[in-house]
Amino acid sequence: MSAAKNDMLLQIRGLRIEASNGAVLTDGIDLDLRRGEVLGLIGESGAGKSTLGLAPLVYARAGCSITGGEILLAGQDLRKLDTNGRRSLRGVRVAYVAQSAAAAFNPSMTLMAQVCEGPIRHGLMNRREAEAKAIELFAALDLPEPKTFGQRYPHEASGGQLQRAMAAMAMSCQPDLLVLDEPTTALDVTTQIEVLAKLRELIHEHNTAALYVTHDLSVVAQIADRIMVLRHGKMVETGTTNDILMTPREAYTTALVAERKAAMSGHGVAEAARGETVLTVDDVTIKYGPVTAVKNISFTVSRGETVAVVGESGSGKSTLAYAAIGQIEAAGGAFRFGQAALPPSFKKRSLEQRQRIQLIYQLPDIALNPRQKISDILGRPVAFFEKLSGAAVKARVAELLTLVGLPLDYTERFPGQLSGGQKQRICIARALAARPELVICDEVTSALDPLVAEDILKLLKQLQDELGVSYLFITHDLGTVKRIAHRVVVMLKGQMVAEGATSDIFETPPDDYTRKLLLSVPEMRTDWLDEALTRRDIWRAGPAALPA
Amino acid sequence: MGILRFIAARAALGVLTLFAVSILLYLGTQLLPGDVASALLGQSATPDALAVLRAKLGLNEPAYLRYLHWLWGVLHGNLGNSLTTGTPIAGELMPRLINTLFLAGYAAIIAVPLAVGLGILSAIREGSLMDRLASILSLAAISFPEFFVSYILIVVFASQLGWLPSLATVYDGMGFWDRVDATTLPAITLTLVVVAHMLRMTRTSTLAVMSAPYVETAFLKGLSRSRVVLSHALPNALAPIINVVAINLAYLVVGVVVVEVVFVYPGVGQLMVDAVTKRDLPTVQACGLVFAIVFIGLNTIADICSALANPRLRSRKRQ
C-alpha cells in the first residue's frame, strides 16, 4: 500500500486481562498494527483471542477486567480514557463485528435503524446522511435491493446477509480499526466465501486496519497480512501469513498447520468391494407438517464402512439421521437393517433393533447429565442392554474407557470435570456400550477445537478397525469427510444431489452443487480466495467454461 | 394482514373464554346450598309459599334452560332483577361500575408510569442506592396487608395532617376534582399494593435482556447505558412487562373489595359482597360477569400488545 501503511495505529504492550475468579485470560501480550494492515489472531477456544480482540475497544466481558499493560491507539493510551472517552472511541475509531450476526442484531429494530444508530448518536451525521451512507455500504457489500434492504428486520435476512449488514454497521463511522470476531464461522462454506471476499474488499478499499479473530487458519490465510498464534492467553508466535503457513517455528503452530493440511490431503480410498449391507435407506421422504425436509433419499451403508452425509444447514442431513434412529418418523420409504425393515418410530422397534443403531450427539456438554458420574453414565446402557450387574458392569465400563483412551479412574468424575474432547470420548463410549453395528455421528467434531477434533476422528477410525462398526457421519465439514469417509452422500435442500466413493466425488464431482461446495472450502494458501473467486466467476458464466 | 388475523383470532378466543366463564359462574351459584326461594323466604318458608315462589322465579325449569334464559337476557343487556330490591340489576351496577373504573383508572395513572419508570431506572442503575431503595420500599409496601396500609394513610393524611378526607364518599353530580380529592387515599393505597410487582418485573425482564449479544453490540457501538436500556433492551423485554401490567390493572378492578370497605367506597366489589351475604344470586352473577369481562378483556389486549411489540410475530404471516 501507500505511505499510510507505515504509520503505527495500534500498539499493545504487556496486556494482562483477568477474570474475577483470578484466572488469567491473556498475559504479557505485545502487538503492533499499522494502518491498513490485517492481523489474524489464531487459537483454540480459551486461548484468549476474543478477549484480546476486544481490548482495543477497552471492553472486557462480564466478570473480566483489563488489569495491566498499555493499549495505545495512534499514541493515545486508551486505558486512561474515562467512560465518555471510551464511548466516543467505540464504534467511531474502533468497530466490532460479532461472530453470530443473527444474535448480534437487535431483533426488534430494523437493520437500517441499527446501522445508522452509531453515526447519528455520535453526532457525525444526520439521519439522511447516515441512511445514504448505509445504502452505499449495502450496495458495496452486494446486499439485495440496497435501497430497501435496511427496512428489513434481522429475521427477514439470511445469515450471510446479516453478517455483511454487520460489516456495514461497523463501517458506518469509518473506523480506523475493525475487530472481526469469527465473522464467517457461523456460515455455510458457500456463503463464507462471499462474505470473506466482501470483507477483504471493504478493508482494502477503506484502508482500515483489522484484527481478525478466528480458529480457522485457512480462512485467516485469505485475509491477513500477518498472523499471531495464541495459546492459553500467551503469544506462541507471530509472523507474516506466509511464514506461519510455510515455516512455522513453534511446535504448536506446526501441529495446527499440519492438522489443516491433513484436512486437505484427502482420504484416497478407492472403491473396494463393499461388505455386507448394514443399513439400507430406501426412497425415504420426511415431512415436517406440510414441509418436505427430506425427499426420496436412497443409499446403503456396509459393514465397517463410513458414509458421510454432507450438506449445508437446512439440507435435511440431521433430519435423516434422526429418522434413521426413529426419533422422527419417515413419511415415505423405509430404513432396512440387514434384511429386516425398521418400523418408522423407535417406539415400535425391538430392543435389539434399537441396540444395533446408536447415536453420538453434536454437543457433548449437553448430551451428558452433569449430575451423573461417568460410572453411571456408562454403566446404565451396559446394565440395560447386556443385562449385567455389579462387578460385570464395572469391568465392562473399564473396558469401554480403555477403548476410548481414557484413564480408568475417570469413573468417579462428573462430566463437568472433563474437557470437551474427553466428554466426546465418553459419548462415544456410551454409544459403544450397546455393542452397536451402526453408529450415527451427528456433527461430532464441529463443537471441538481443531486439534481435539483431529484426535476424535483418529479414535473413531481406530475403533472402526478394531470393532468393525459402521458410521453414518453427518457433517458440514468437507475436510472431515475427506479424512474419514469411504463414501459420501451430498444433500441440497432435502434432496440427494450426489452419492459415491469419496475419492470419486472429490476428484470428479458429478454435479454443479458438489463442485461449488468443494470449491468453497478454503485452502491453506494465501492466494486461494482469488483463485476461488475467479473460478466462481467462470463457473457463473457457464459451467462448461470451468477448467477440469 | 397477518396481524389483523391474529387480533381477530385472539379476540374470538377471548369471547370463547368469557362464554366458558359464564357457564362456570352460573354453575357455581347453582351449587350453593338451598335455593333462592328458601333464602328469600327464610323463617316464613312454608312448602306452599316455596312452591309458589319457585314457580314465579322459574326455578322449576331445568338448570340449562335457566342458564340459556339468563344468557339470552345478558346478551340483550338485561342482567335480570335483583332478588332483594326487585329492581333491574343494571341500574344499580352501572354507577358502581363507573366508580370502580374511576378509582382503578386513577390508581393506574399513578401506578403504571411509576412502576415501569422506576423499573427501567433500576435496570439502568443496577446495584445503585436508588435501585436497592426502590426494591426494598416496593417490597415493604406489598408486604403489608391492604387494610393496614389504608389505615396508616388515613391516620397520617386524614387525621394528623387533615389534607384528605378519610372516607371516599362520592355521589351523583359530584364535580370531577371533588371526586379526585375523595378517592386520592384509596388510589394511593392501591398504587402501593400493585407497584412492587410491576416494578420488579420491569427491572428483571429488562436486565435479563441485558446479557443478550445484541446488547453487547450496542455497547460496543459506543452508546450510553440509558440509550442501550431504552432502545435495545426494553423493546425486547416488553412482552412480560405488558402482561404483568395487565394483570395488575385487572387486580385494580376486581381485587379492591378490602380497600372499598375501608374507605366506604361504593364500588362493584362491595356490591358483590353484599349480594353474597343476601343470597342475591343474579346480582352475584352480574358482578362476576363484569369482573370476568374486565379480566379477560385486559389480558386479551395485553396479548395483542405483546404481539405488536414483536416484529417476528407482527410479520409472521407475511412470510
From TrEMBL, chain A:
Taxonomic path: Bacteria, Pseudomonadati, Pseudomonadota, Alphaproteobacteria, Acetobacterales
Superkingdom field: Bacteria
Subcellular location per the Swiss-Prot or TrEMBL entry: Cell inner membrane
Family: Belongs to the ABC transporter superfamily.
Keyword Methyltransferase among record annotations: no
GO MF annotation list: ATP binding; ATP hydrolysis activity
Name used for this protein in its record: ABC transporter ATP-binding protein
GO cellular component: plasma membrane
InterPro entries: AAA+_ATPase, ABC_Ni/Peptide_Import, ABC_transporter-like_ATP-bd, ABC_transporter-like_CS, Oligopep_ABC_C, P-loop_NTPase
Membrane topology: Peripheral membrane protein
Keywords, in A-Z order: ATP-binding, Cell membrane, Membrane, Nucleotide-binding, Transport
A biological process from GO: peptide transport
Organism name: Acidisoma cellulosilyticum
Every ABC transporter domain range: 10-257, 279-518
Coiled coil feature spans: none
Pfam families: ABC_tran, oligo_HPY
From TrEMBL, chain B:
Record's subcellular location: Cell membrane
Membrane topology of the entry: Multi-pass membrane protein
Record key words, sorted: Cell membrane, Membrane, Transmembrane, Transmembrane helix, Transport
GO molecular function: dipeptide transmembrane transporter activity
Superkingdom, taxonomy of origin: Bacteria
One Pfam family cited in the UniProt record for this chain: BPD_transp_1
GO cellular component: plasma membrane
SUPFAM superfamilies: MetI-like
Transmembrane segments: 7-27, 101-124, 136-163, 183-201, 241-268, 288-309
InterPro entries named among the record's database cross-references: BPD_transp_1_N, MetI-like, MetI-like_sf
Domain ABC transmembrane type-1 stretches: 97-302
First-listed, main subcellular location of the protein, grouped into a coarse class: membrane
Family: Belongs to the binding-protein-dependent transport system permease family.
Name of the protein in question: ABC transporter permease
Organism for this UniProt entry: Acidisoma cellulosilyticum
Lineage, uppermost ranks: Bacteria, Pseudomonadati, Pseudomonadota, Alphaproteobacteria, Acetobacterales
